[in-house]
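Expect chain and fold; thus:
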Amino acid sequence: MVQSLKVFLFEICFVRRRDVPRREVSRLYAGTFVHKPLIAVVTAGSDIDIDAISPYADAIIFSWYPGEQGGNALADVLFGDVSPSGHLPVTFYKSLSNVPDYSDYNMKGRTYRYYGGPVQFPFGFGLSYTSFDYQLQPGIKEKYRLNDTITATVQVKNTGKMDGDAVVQAYVEYPKIDRMPLKELKGFKRVTVQKGAGNTVVIRIPVRDLEKWDMARHGWKLYRGAYKLELGENAQDERITVGFNVD
């Protein structure tokens, strides 16, 4: 596809700091007077304060550090030759004040596994030029034991106007027990789906993977109780939920 790109590109590069330097925000604000759609391309290696630039950008692409072919990859996305399908491997917190200081190794309030506060973008977040519908097929049991495997079969349909890759993510929410994580990513599958078509994704989770360290016994333990399987496109997208018990 060969065409002109009638937008204004603005690159922001980060090395160490999370907050956006004021001069970069000022430059981005000045770009709004060009009166063309403004796309901010952020080059960074971790969570940054996207809220500082989002009021001035029509679109934001987080390119990480893409390497020597990064320019070609970016062009493919900008010109619509490829639908983006990347998903965040970290949580973008709303503010650093929401996260406790590292005064110890306690994980409470840190990472998507133990953090329940406000976010800019949740763990696993990602956008696409198309849209997908998920339908869970029968097969999830009411009870599981240590040597069982949870098998989730999901029918994915492309409901948009472009071919694209869906990334189905499976999270498990744990019983409300001290030191337990709120939820954990236990599997994911990427699948290419043509527009108007469908495809089937199967995610298998060994129940043994739900074991946690028992501080008293100094060994792995499978805790009994009520769990919940969540299927969606990020850690907060509870598109499909189904409960089960571990005995």
In short: The mean pLDDT is 90. The first helix runs from residue 22 to 31. Residues 72 and 94 are 31 Å apart (CA to CA).
